[in-house]
Amino acid sequence: MSGSTRSDFASVWSLYLWIGIGVAVLVFGAVGFAVVRYRERPGRAPSRRAELNLLEGTVAALILAIVALLVFRTFSTEAKEDDSSAVGAVRIDVDAFQWGWKFTYPGEGVTVVGDSDHEPDFAVPAGRTVSFALTSSDVIHAMWIPGQRFKKDAIPGRTNRFDLEFGTRGREQGLCSEFCGLRHSNMRFGVWILSQASYERWLAAHR
Amino acid sequence: MAGGAPVSRLAATDHKKTAAKVGIASLCFFLLSGLLALTMRAELAQPGLQFVSDHTYDELFTMHGSGMIYLFLTPAALGLGLYLVPLQVGASQVAAPRLALFGFWLYLLGGLTMYSGFLTDNGAGDDSWTATIPLSNSSGTPGVGMDLWVIGVALAVFGSLLIAITILLTVLRLRAPGMTMLRLPVFSWTMLVTTFMVVASFPVLVVAMALLLAERHLGGVFTGSTGSIVYQHLFWFYGHPVVYVMFFPFVGAVAETVATFSRKRFFGYRALVVSLLFFTALSMAVWGHHMFITGAVKNQYYSLTSTLLAVPAGIEYLDLIGTMIGGALVFRAPMLFALGFIVQFLIGGLTGIIVASPPLDYHVNGTYFIVAHFHYTLFAGSLFGLLAGVHYWFPKATGAMLRERLAKASFWVLAAGANLTFFPMFFLGYDGMPRRVADYEPRLGDLNLLSSIGAGVIAIGVLMVLANLAVSLRRRVPAGNDPWGAQTLEWWTSSPPPADNFTTLPRIDSYAPLLDLREREEEAAEPAVEVPA
């Protein structure tokens, strides 16, 4: 994949959100109109019309068109995010456990481990693709980096692969978002997004 | 309920009495599970741990969710159907009344079993309402409390299944002469499709719970790299249809309420029936959207089927609003709750479309955004629909009217409380708060406090509803057969209905036989108009 999940998310999100708000305004407006316009008044007999299948068909077709648009955007973004075949990417193996994380940089001789008492921080270079291989040694966890608008399950016996590209430098908070037992609330980690030079210094310091 | 020794009362097979038992039991489980939610909101009002330990908190959210889904909303929906469907189709009894009663006892036993976990050393079940493998196996969650949870779920769900079967049979086999399938009242249609889903999906959960129990005590069931995924497939094959089991009956209740208080027959009946069938079929094909982040399902397929749900849901909204357009709307308490359902459920429905998109779900899955989404469907939606139904049919079931002003006041308090509690949760989830945590980052404190205050407001609203029920039963204002000017057969008979439901039946040639009757009377009363040549 190329580009960040954060920007992918933002464009799909705004499409869904604005269509949702539009539909809500339309429905609230229609309910409001009915409530004001058709409240019971003396001398007004209710209509006896009980069916208008042309209207039903039109509305169904309109919604179907919106669904087609949404699904099309979703599919193209999903295809991009599910593609984890980037070459020359930074590789990080992540092992989740009750209740902490182990980040290993294959071939670099670097491993960072931490648990709910000492949350681990790992580092990535800004602007480069980072390929994660995520698994768990005990129960199901999920690795969530809210700043990247992305998470994936860590499942024992399976490896989930995904690529992320981190933009803005600084520290982002990550956490477990799949209930995994007693210390789930405190199963956190940090990601330092560094320049290439600082990233290499960080690697050297952690060898 | 008056008269008869206690034993004969407990063994009575009349569908109305069984339904009343289901209603009372589910109300008790609602109050218990609601108290757990209030305790959670008290803990979450501020960051850090104040009142409960991590372990207690896990029990709280597990038993809150399990109680509300397995022991409150599902049985309450089926109980409403058990009471009303025989009346709406003009039957003197439910089909297989003893099976329905047996179903009630299994459900009650299941609920008590699940809750009895609190009395054991390790406490009650604490793996959330989904009990994901491998966390829920014997090494992940040792203790009798979790076993009691598994057995309790199996019993309660099996009991609900039996009740649903009797409702399904009643619709298919016991309709009065003239009551064709396309004259079935809207509520009965929603119950029919609900019980279809129950019959197709609930047995899978009973089996999953049996397998989970075997896994816990014998091992070797959900093992290897696929075991946890297989369990999730079994669970969600039940777990998504049940969402609509807790939705359709309340759409039906709202539809009846809206039609009656619009003084107009339900708009778009046949389109609604088609949309319900389409919805039901789709409901069996969307479960994988709960597994988008597992990397183990074809996300595109489940995204497509889930997003398609917008079509039948849109038709339902069109028909509800179309019923009001051109009507003569009367804003009695049941109508307010129905309008609350329509407006608030929409927020749950539209955010449901958002989470049906995997790239969006990758961010909000497992967070408070999801908690907000499904509380808008289940609390701000389904519970308001249930309350519309309770306020609408209470006079029928008891022969007494509810206090109107208190009912309206309770509606406004509950609506304020629901939105105050659940709207902030959308922002909390988006901003980084996962669900099922007793503690969170201090920066999220303000929104959490707001949400906790809302929970207190909800509690006041619930107390007002309870007070109304108590006062109205004590100092009775007689209701008569049909206090609302309603349209379906249950309003033809006395309130409460006699043991065999009906002594006579009117002509049935549409889904609104009592409205037909009034319209024929009006036409007969109108002076003949000369037709110009």
Question: Could you characterize what this model shows?
Answer:
The complex is a heterodimer of chains A (207) and B (533). Helices cover 36% and strands 30% of the residues of chain A. With 207 residues, chain A is an alpha+beta fold. In chain A, β6 (141-145) and β7 form a beta hairpin. In chain A, α1 (5-37) runs antiparallel to α2 (53-82). The longest helix of chain A is centred in the N-terminal third of the chain and has 33 residues, at 5-37. Chain B is mainly α. Helices cover 67% and strands 0% of the residues of chain B. In chain B, α3 (54-88) runs antiparallel to α6 and α3 packs parallel to α15 (368-398). Chains A and B meet through α1, α2, β7 and β9 of A and α3, α7, α10, α11 and α12 of B.
Give the helix/strand layout.
The complex is a heterodimer of chains A (207) and B (533).
Chain A: H1 5-37, H2 53-82, E1 90-97, E2 100-105, E3 110-115, E4 121-125, E5 129-136, E6 141-145, E7 150-154, E8 160-165, E9 170-176, E10 188-194, H3 196-206
Parallel strand pairs in A: 1-5, 4-10
Antiparallel strand pairs in A: 1-2, 2-3, 5-8, 6-7, 6-9, 9-10
Helix pairs in contact in A: 1-2
Chain B: H1 6-11, H2 15-44, H3 54-88, H4 97-116, H5 144-173, H6 186-217, H7 224-239, H8 241-245, H9 248-261, H10 269-283, H11 299-308, H12 310-324, H13 333-355, H14 358-364, H15 368-398, H16 404-430, H17 445-474, H18 513-525
